[in-house]
Amino acid sequence: MRYNNQFFTPIFGEDLLPIKPSIVLEKGEFNKNISLLFGTCNDEGSGFVSSFGFKDLSSSSPNSSMNLEKAHFMIELLFGVMKVSYGKEVADFYTKGLTDNDGYELKKAVSNAFGDYQLTCPTIRFGAHLAKTPANTQNSLATSY
Questions:
Q1: Partners of 39 in beta bridges
Q2: Which residues form the Carboxylesterase type B domain (predicted)?
Q3: Burial class of residue 26, CB neighbours in 10 A (0-12, 13-18, 19+)
Q4: What are the tens digits of pLDDT across the range 78-99?
Q5: In contact, 80 and 87? CB cutoff 8 Å
Q6: DSSP letters spanning 3-59
Q7: Where are the domains of the chain?
């Protein structure tokens, strides 16, 4: 997402979040005696994807402006930028069964592919990892999507 024309990215290395979260999880150096509610929102990736300047994903752009080839291109480009080697497979998965006549669903496919990879899947993996932590077997963990 953009704020003041700058991309938003998580920041760590300060008082609030001194260490990168993935490192903290790997080392198990976090407060394990907590109850936690975590989750993501439907279409959470759309706000991020729209900041990449894909005009065809804009809500003001007609659904007919999106076609299967563009959706594949956008997904593969996004995953290439993230240095993920299997962008084509991701594009195939998210556009399976869609045609050029499915403009709205193709827009959602691009947003969902990005959002799932960057937000939803890591959040679910975090919860699964936390749930396996011995101290958390007695605590409440809940997820929402």
A1: 144
A2: 7-133
A3: exposed
A4: 999 889 999 999 999 999 999 9
A5: yes
A6: ETTEE-----SSSSS-S-HHHHHHHT-S--S--EEEE--TTHHHHHHHTTT-GGGST
A7: 41-129
